[in-house]
Amino acid sequence: MKFPRELLARPLAHRALHGPGRPENSIAAIRAAVDGGWGIEIDVQPASDGTPMVFHDYALDRLTGREGWIRLHTVEQLAATTLLGGDEGIPTLQQVLDAVAGKVPLIVEIKDQDGSLGPSVGALERATADVLRDYKGPVAVMGFNPNSIRVFGGFAPDIPRGLVTDAFTAEDWPMVPMARRKKLAEMRDLLTCGATFISHNRKALYSAQVLKLSQRNFPILTWTIRSQDHADLALEVADQITFEGYIPK
After folding, report:
1. What global pTM score does this model have?
2. Could you tell me which of 12, 43, 162, 205 has the fewest CB atoms within 10 Å of its CB?
């Protein structure tokens, strides 16, 4: 398994190319990114039967105005739940793959289902692997939880995978125990989980761990870039950006 160099060809649209009339992670935002030739980053959460749905949050309220948890709703209910700012429901991963159709690179972030980035994972990783297994376009999977990435690799060893990394401060990660945050910040699980790249918080790009990886030519992506000035600074360390709210040069 090698890192797909196609992921470095064009900046990645964070949660697809969302904007007015194109909610984040919607099919409309996916199509806009494809039309613009941008790479795409999306998130998956499970429906009640485990089907991977393309949605960032655990709760529905911010993005749909409805109360409840995405994992407690059926695929049909979620498809009928309109995303705020658009006229579409929440798509499945398969529907997104059909819309991308290999035209641009795609990164799928598996959202942690353990609750504290621990070992209680597996169902969403298996379901995501099942959907991606026959996809023909350039694709990779990533996540904050190294256990998730390791387990996914067991289900789909030929699909490149990476870690989403951060400084893991107590302020930003209050549900994660201190010892766990320290281990994650030091990236001690990077190689054992089979990661071939990282996607790191731009605010901590000059950490010792990231700079060491850069010196080894280990692929580094960064999130979330919201201006050209931030992009220019980030690319002094990172190989590629994940952007939103503006169009990169």
Report:
1. 0.97
2. 205
Select 5-243's CATH number: 2.60.40.10, 3.30.1050.10, 3.20.20.190, 1.20.140.10: 3.20.20.190
- 66-78 pLDDT, tens per residue? 999 999 999 999 9
- Bridge partners of 43, per DSSP, are 109
How far is the C-alpha of 178 from the C-alpha of 215, rounded, in Å?
28
Three-state secondary structure string covering 136-188: CCCEEEEECCHHHHHHHHHHCCCCCEEEEECCCCCCCCCCCCHHHHHHHHCCC
**Nearest one of 119, 118, 121, 190 to 161, comparing CA atoms:** 190
**DSSP string covering the chain, please?**
----GGGGTSPEEETSS-BTTB-TT-HHHHHHHHHHT-EEEEEEEE-TT--EEE-S-SBSHHHHS--SBGGGS-HHHHHTSBPTTSS-BPPBHHHHHHHHTTSS-EEEEEPPSSSSSSS---HHHHHHHHHHTT--S-EEEEES-HHHHHHHHHH-TTS-EEEEE----TTT-TTS-HHHHHHHHTTTTTTTTT-S-EEEEGGGTTSHHHHHHHHTT--EEEEEE-SHHHHHHHTTT-SEEEE-SS---
Where in the chain are the domains?
A: 5-243
Whether residue 224 is preceded by a cis peptide bond, meaning omega within 30 degrees of 0, is yes
Please give the structure tokens belonging to residue 178. 């201190």
